[in-house]
Task: structure prediction
Amino acid sequence: MPSRPHNGAQDSRFNRRLTEILAHATEVFCDKSYQGASMRDLSRATGMSLAGLYHYFGSKERLLYLIQKHTFTTIVEELKRRLETAADPAARIRIFIQNHLEYFVTNQSGLKVLAHEDEALKNGFNHEISVIKREYYKICLGLMEDLKRARKLNFNSRTAVMSLFGMINWIYTWYNPRHDGTAKQLADEMSEIILSGVGSNSMCGAGIRARVKPGAGIPARVKQRLGRAPSGRSGGRAIKPLSSRTQLSI
Result:
């Protein structure tokens, strides 16, 4: 890519155009997969000539790298801004969940590409992305640790974090706003599931099965949602099995 212009108006146009190109490229990778997409496919989708695409981006791998960098940087920066507004550990976990869902409910193709093309980046592109993703993981881990200390709980923070990522990263396979509500409603329900589990003393430690009935503390509406049998399809298309590293490689 050419150097970013420093003039305010030019900088704004540059960012808008780059965002548009990355959005079109994301749709191509979502529909055809990274391996199945060609630079010619990307050229048609973005409206750039094939020569222009090679000149500014060099390869489809660089486009995938920019998609991932833009996505994670946007999410992390917005999360940090929102966390400054709350001090309560449970409220901060709710913010984390809502921030993630608000982005990906409107960018489900992006979430699919991040999940399925997790191992596609090579040639040094993957290192910078791994650093950003690791920071995202550490923020969430810190939030869980804060909750443990505040409530004097005993649970495995890594297990809790990875379970949370498993929940919020899978939505592209089943989310339907007509049935599942807004991102805020979905975040509230998922927060209840997480906080009713790790955030309750009765749910921690040995002997949990003997002390707590399955589903205890989970709202009825959430239980009903959890009881839905997965169809194994999304939007009429078969769901591709995810690799063992899915959770966005955290």
